[in-house]
Design brief:
By secondary structure, the chain is an alpha+beta fold. The protein has 2 helices and 4 strands; from the N terminus they run E-E-H-E-H-E. A two-stranded antiparallel ribbon has the order 1-2. A two-stranded parallel sheet has the order 3-4. Helix 1 packs parallel to helix 2. The longest helix is centred in the middle third of the chain and has 13 residues. The N and C termini lie far apart (32 Å).
């Protein structure tokens, strides 16, 4: 599901991943590839570990951003129990 908004800083899109619907970890990079991110994009992502890795890779290979440029946080890992 996508939710779009606009404010003084620009256009925002929230992409909610629903694993039950068959969405996979590539849904966020796929959505980013179709977006007009402009010449100097700022990327923030907080998601499952596989999604974060794919977004970082997309930012490096497709956007030419350095590894430290996107702010990306892993909040959980699928199929892993914390002890």
């Amino acid at each position: 599901m996508r939710v779009r908004a606009r404010d003084d800083a620009g256009d925002w899109t929230w992409l909610f991943r629903d694993a039950a619907s068959g969405d996979d970890a590539d849904s966020l990079p796929d959505a980013m590839s179709g977006a007009n991110l402009g010449p100097d994009p700022h990327v923030w992502v907080g998601a499952e570990d596989d999604v974060v890795h794919r977004v970082r890779r997309f930012c490096e290979t497709e956007l030419g951003l350095g590894r430290s440029r996107p702010y990306a946080l892993t909040y959980w890992r699928s199929n892993r129990v914390e002890r």
